[in-house]
Structure formats: C-alpha cells, structure tokens
Specification:
Layout (H helix, E strand, L loop, with lengths): L1 H8 L15 E3 L5 E3 L5 H4 L15 E16 L4 E13 L10 E4 L12 E4 L1 E6 L7 E6 L3 E13 L11 E10 L7 E5 L6 E2 L9 E15 L2 E14 L2 H18 L10 H24 L10 H48 L4 H19 L2 E2 L4 E2 L7 H20 L5 H28 L1
Parallel strand pairs: 3-11, 3-12
Antiparallel strand pairs: 1-2, 3-4, 4-9, 5-8, 6-10, 7-9, 8-9, 10-14, 13-14, 15-16
C-alpha cells in the first residue's frame, strides 16, 4: 500500500522501469538493489514505520528549528504561558533514498505511514495540533532520504515565576523539547542553526512584557529509564512597569500626600481632620485589595507592590494617629489649666460672703488632719517620702509613684501645636527617604 502511494506521486519515475518501487531496497548506479542496513535484511525487506532509521546502529540525528507565531497570554496566577509555534524537524532515513535531486511535498496523511520522532514538549499543560481546514502538518521528502516534518502547535507551558519584585520583575521561561521513548542511544537532538534556529520571538509585541533576550541550549535529561536528549529555548521577559505606575503607584502616593493636608488644619477642626484621615485610610485599603485581586492565587508572595502599598498605608495611618496624639495632648493641657483658674474665680465670690477668719480656721484644721493621717508632705510636683512615721512599703510606693510621674513628664507634650509643626517636615522627609531606598533596591538589586 505504501509503495502504491509513492509510485502514484511519481517517485518511481526516477527508477528503472523493470524495478518495482520498494522502500526497503535502494537502487544504486550499477542497477543492484542493496538494503539500507546490512545484516538486518529480515527487518528491512519492506519499510517498517515502527523501526527507526539506522535501527540497531548509530542514533538518528534530528535537527530542529522553531518559529514563534505568538505568545497569547502569560498568567502569573497559573504560572504558565500560552504560545503558538511552528516546529520543524529534519532527519535522514536511508530507506527513503531515491534517484534524482528533487524534493517532493507529500500529503500530510502519509505521516501515518512513516516513522517520525516521538518529540514532546516538557512541562506542557495543554497542547493541540491545528486542524483547520486540514491537519496543519507538512511532509517533504528529499532525494537523499532527508525528511522535513513541520507542525503547527498551540501549547500552554508551565513557567516558574519569582514574583518577589512584581511589577519590576524579569521572568525567565523555557520551551523544552525532548524525546519521549528514544534515549540518546537511539536519537540525538540538535538545533539546526544554533540561536538562528528560532525566529519570530524578537518581533513579538506583548501587553505587559518585553522580550529582553533569548538563547538555545542542548542538554540531556537523566531519567530512571535512561538519558534522553533535550533542546531548550530560554527567553527572558521584562515586565513593563509604566502601567502599574499609573494605576497603583501614583494614586497611592497622592493619597499619602492628601493625608498631609490635615497638618495645616487647626486642632480644633475635629470633623475636618478626622474625615481626611478616615477617608485616606479607607481609600488606601481599597487600593490594596484591588492590586491583589488580579493575583489572587499568588498571595503567598510578598511582592514589591505590596511593600510599597504597605509603606503608603503606614504613612497614612501615622498621619491619623498624629492627630489623635496632638488632640489628646491639647485637651489634657486645657484640662490642667481649668482647675487653676476655676477656684480663683470662686474664691473671689466667696470672699464677699464668707469671713476670712472662718476660711483660715477651716484650712488649718484640714491641714492638720492630713498631716496626722499620712505624715506625708505634698509638694507641687512630687511627694516627699521622707516622713518619719512612714512605713517601708509606703516609702517604696511613694518612690515608684514619683518615678512614674517623672517618666510621664518626659512624654508630656508641652506645646501640642508643635506636633503639627514637626509633622509637616518629618512626614515628607521620611517618605522621600523610604522611596529612594525602595526604588534603588528593587531596580538595581
């Protein structure tokens, strides 16, 4: 049957008319028929597609080349990319040598009658061969027995990504071709022209990435069943960060600057400052949730964009806390002044109605009672713990109380308005310094 296909296509036109078309025999110049593999006549009398060329002898050398038609999608959440490629394989089968120097393109359905390499794509998740309008395959036969076998394949290949610097990252992905069943003793893989064997990848225009560089490798895969030849196309993709600057970095920076507006509003404007603080915190929270929604399956990574959003959220929350501290200190200071001014006014009114002698007598009596009860003299700042009648544990409590008053004095803000004054300078300064370290680290390290 196979012989009939080739005779029909005209291959036997180059053979003598008295010779029958046989794939297992090759005519030489002297008109003799010789088998392609001496010593294996019983296996090569007729063409056997289940046996590789040079069966039992040297390995078949398979040269490959690639055309990258497109890379349609690169998914960070699934850690893979989808590409459409044109895979071309060349090898020589001495059983298919015929007279002449021409080549013939055969019907792709004849592939079922030929031996072809069992090449597969390593780490492929999903792949399919295009079949519109017919199967996108090509078979071309040359007179020296060389076969060109071309396929159009769309495949989704796994790509291990490091997203720690996302979106300022550069990812390295691979397209690996390997023999499934034939080890290095049966077949060897080579690139047809080295790096020039790959075309089309330098012309790709991707939505988020730019192809930095690519190169080809030839290696071996050591498996439990043997050592298998493998070809690798490795390419580096650099993410375009401009989109993320406009979508995330600029809005988050503006929210931080908006939170600083509260420093120029007086402490008495509680609704205005509270509204600015709460609004910026909620807006920043929404921005953080939105930035992570597109990478919902990679939340385990602490990405560069997460670090920046965390920094912005900290500065916004710090501005809200700053107002709380300043307002609390201001209210405490007002409360401390109120008792000093209130009794003076009341004393003026009472002096008009109460006799000064009665006031002095009552004050002296109250003062004596206090001395006889505690034997502690109360000063304006600290408690005097040198009373002779004071017990040991009371002295310890008194000393600790004095220490606590002294420590609290260190943290007491004497002028709450200075908090806003210093915040106007310190918040922008620290934010600029953090930005310098952030961009320097993620862009150059």
């Amino acid at each position: 049957m196979f012989c009939r296909y080739f005779c029909f296509l005209g291959l036997c036109l180059f053979l003598p008319t008295q010779r029958r078309c046989s794939l297992g025999h090759v005519p030489d110049l002297h008109g003799r028929e010789t088998t392609s593999l001496p010593g294996f006549e019983n296996l090569t009398m007729g063409y056997n597609k289940y046996l590789r060329p040079y069966f039992g002898g040297e390995p078949v050398q398979i040269a490959m080349s690639l055309d990258i038609a497109s890379i349609s999608s690169i998914s960070e959440s699934d850690m893979d990319y989808t590409a459409t490629i044109y895979l071309r394989q060349r090898w020589t089968d001495p059983r298919l040598v015929f007279h002449g120097n021409k080549s013939f393109t055969l019907d792709a359905r004849l592939v079922e009658l030929l031996w072809v390499p069992d090449t597969y794509i390593v780490e492929s998740k999903r792949s399919f061969l295009h079949d519109v309008t017919v199967g996108n395959r090509l078979i071309r036969l040359f007179s020296n027995g060389t076969i060109l076998y071309a396929l159009r394949i769309t495949t989704t290949v796994a790509c291990n990504m490091d997203l720690s610097k996302y979106p300022m990252d550069t990812q390295t992905c691979r397209l690996q071709l390997e023999s499934w069943g034939y080890d290095e003793n049966d077949v060897t893989f080579t690139w047809l022209r080295g790096n020039d064997s790959v075309h089309g990848i330098e012309k790709l225009r991707l939505s988020q990435y730019t192809v930095e560089r690519y190169y080809t490798l030839v290696t071996k895969s050591q498996q439990e069943t043997g050592s298998y030849p493998r070809l690798i196309l490795q390419f580096e993709l650099r993410r375009n960060v401009l989109y993320f600057i406009l979508e995330t970095y600029v809005p988050s920076t503006l929210l931080v600057m908006l939170s600083w507006v509260s420093f120029w509003i007086t402490l008495d404007s509680v609704p205005a400052r509270t509204c600015i603080g709460v609004t910026t915190v909620l807006s920043m929270t929404t921005l953080m949730i939105g930035s992570r929604s597109s990478l919902s399956k990679t939340n385990c990574f602490i990405k560069a964009i997460d670090v920046y959003l965390g920094i912005c959220f900290s500065f916004i929350f710090g501005a809200l806390v700053e107002y709380a501290v300043a307002h609390y200190s201001s209210s405490q200071k007002c409360a401390a002044k109120a008792p000093q001014e209130g009794p003076a006014d009341e004393l003026t009114k009472e002096m008009e109605e109460v006799n000064i002698t009665n006031i002095l007598n009552s004050s002296i009596t109250s003062y004596k009672r206090q001395i006889s009860f505690t034997s502690i003299e109360i000063s304006s700042d600290n408690l005097n713990c040198s009373g002779l009648t004071m017990k040991t544990h009371e002295k310890i409590k008194c000393v600790l109380r004095n220490k606590m008053h002294r420590i609290m004095g260190y943290f007491t803000i004497q002028n709450p308005s200075n908090v806003d004054h210093y915040s106007k300078l310190l918040f922008p300064l620290f934010f600029m310094l953090v930005n310098v370290f952030y961009w320097a680290y993620y862009l150059y390290f």
